[in-house]
Design a protein that fits this description.
The chain has no helices and nine strands. The protein has about 130 residues and is an all-beta fold. The termini are close together.
Amino acid sequence: MTLFTCTHCEHPLTSDLQESQATPAGDHLSDHRIADPRVAQGTYAINHDATLFILHPDDVPGTALHPDSGRRAGCCGLDGRDGPNLVCAACGAEVATKESDCWTDNLVALIASAVVSGTESPSGTR
């Protein structure tokens, strides 16, 4: 299991997650609906160049919306096109981009350089 924390303040951004594979991006642009999440809740995937961790949108309780409203554009959700739109809830550091609009994927992309991933052993020690 992996727990992601903020590199700046070590605040937990997620609960324990298990690595998995993301589903391929779907073609949902024509029906204007929110797509199914790219990964199952409780899991994460690493993107092709290891710069992002792809998470289910409900798996980042330690984050908050970016205070700059310009980062929160979208019609049905967040489109994620204006830079990171999620910050660490404790210190305000930019940590992720959420895409949840009707014409985007449905995911949270944690920025690998903004987070620390810790692995927990089955006994509960790190």
